[in-house]
Amino acid sequence: MTTNRSPYFSILIPSYNRPHFITACIDSIINSDYENYEIIISDDNSPKVEEIYAKVKPYLNNNNIQFFRQNDNLKEPGNKNFLVSKGIGKYNIILGDDDLLLPNSLTKIKKHIDKYPEHDLYTFGYNVIDEKEKFIYSRQAPNELIINKNNQSIINKFFTSSIFPFW
Q1: How far apart are CA 30 and CA 101, in angstroms?
Q2: Max CA distance (Å), the chain
Q3: Which helix (H) or strand (E) covers residue 56, if one does?
């Protein structure tokens, strides 16, 4: 749980039309071994918003969980930008509403950030698991990628390419 200070992580969950996954996503965060976070969920005006809200409502008693309903469909980038604008954590983590965190993920991420505090962007790998919990494949982030922020050309290429999965 967060206290009066800002949370270390803002865990941002864009949601659209998948009420059957959202509670497992939230539970995976709550059941982690790390507590200094906030969870912000934004439903992007999906047809199943009432079902999603019904699934999320029991969690809203926690001071560190918020839920927003969009009046218009912002589309994926707009909904993510909305979530980023609401987060007050030092670092943002965007999870899909059908994603799960492993129990020690946040602690591992925090330790990595503490080890490399001079970096501005951190990326991590993930596993793709199907709806029957069968492992499909893994993606790994590069070990280290150093980009000089003064080289605008490389910065533009970095943010418009597919260097990272689901970028």
Answers
A1: 10
A2: 48
A3: helix 49-56
Q: Which of 42, 53, 123 is nearest to 85 (CA)?
A: 42
**CB within 8 A of 162, min separation 6: which ones?**
none
Give dist(CA 142, CA 123) in Å, integer.
8
* C-beta neighbour count of 136 within 10 angstroms: 8
Where helices occur in 103-142 by DSSP H, the ranges are 105-115
- The residues facing 65 across adjacent strands are 39
CA torsion sign for 72, 75, 81, 83 is: positive
CA 109 to chain CA centroid, nearest Å: 13
User: pLDDT higher for 128 or 100?
Assistant: 100
HEC-encoded secondary structure of 4-46: CCCCCEEEEEEECCCHHHHHHHHHHHHCCCCCCEEEEEEECCC
CA–CA separation, 105 and 135 (whole Å): 18
Q: Rounded CA gap, 82 and 89, in Å?
A: 14
| Torsion (CA) 83, 87, 90, 92 in degrees, nearest 10 | -20
Mind listing the pLDDT tens digit for each residue in 70-107?
Answer: 999 999 999 999 999 999 999 999 999 999 888 899 99
Q: Give the separation between CA 17 and CA 151, rounded to whole angstroms.
A: 41
